[in-house]
Amino acid sequence: MQTLVDVGRPKTAKEEKTDTAVAHDPLWKVIAHDDPVTTMEFVVRIMVQVFKKPLIFAEAIMWQVHTEGQSVVDVLPRAEAEHRVGKATAAARLEGFPFRFTIEPED
Fold first, then answer.
1. What pLDDT digit, counting tens, does each position of 46-90 carry?
2. Number of structural domains found in the chain
3. Buried b (16+ CB within 10 A) or exposed e, 63-82
4. What DSSP assignment string belongs to the chain?
5. Considering the domain boundaries, does residue 55 fall inside one?
6. Does 8 reside within a domain?
7. CB burial of residue 99 (10 Å; 0-12, 13-18, 19+)
C-alpha cells in the first residue's frame, strides 16, 4: 500500500507482482443449504459472527435459505471462503446441527 510519501515513487517488481496477484485472485461463492434441523436463530448468528453480515442481511440470507433451499452468503477468495466455511461448519457440529455449505467458482 502506498503512503503519501510513496505516491511519486515507482513500484518495485515485488509490489507489482503482489498487486497483480490480489487483483486476479479468482473469487468463490459460499452457498448455505437448508436442512430440517438447523434453527433460524443459529443461521442468523453464523451469518453475523462468521460471515460478518449486518443483522438485517443475516436475516435476509436466513429467510432465503429457508424458503428457497439455499442462498449465496458471500463471494470471497478461495482460501477465505474455505476458512469461513470451516469455522461455520465446526460451530454447527458443536451445536449438533447439520447446517451445510458449499463453495463454487464465481462465474
1. 999 999 999 999 999 999 999 999 999 999 999 999 999 999 999
2. 1
3. ebbeeeeebebbebeeeebe
4. ---GGGTTSPPPHHHHHHHHHHHTPPEEEEEEE--SSS-HHHHHHHHHHTT---HHHHHHHHHHHHHHSEEEEEEEEHHHHHHHHHHHHHHHHHTT---EEEEEE--
5. yes
6. no
7. buried
- Quickly count: other Cβ atoms within 10 Å of residue 11's Cβ: 12
Sheet with 70-77: list strands edge to edge.
70-77, 27-33, 100-105
Instruction: Measure the CA–CA gap between 26 and 93, rounded to whole angstroms.
Output: 29
Question: What is the DSSP annotation of 51-79?
Answer: T---HHHHHHHHHHHHHHSEEEEEEEEHH
62 part of a folded domain:
yes
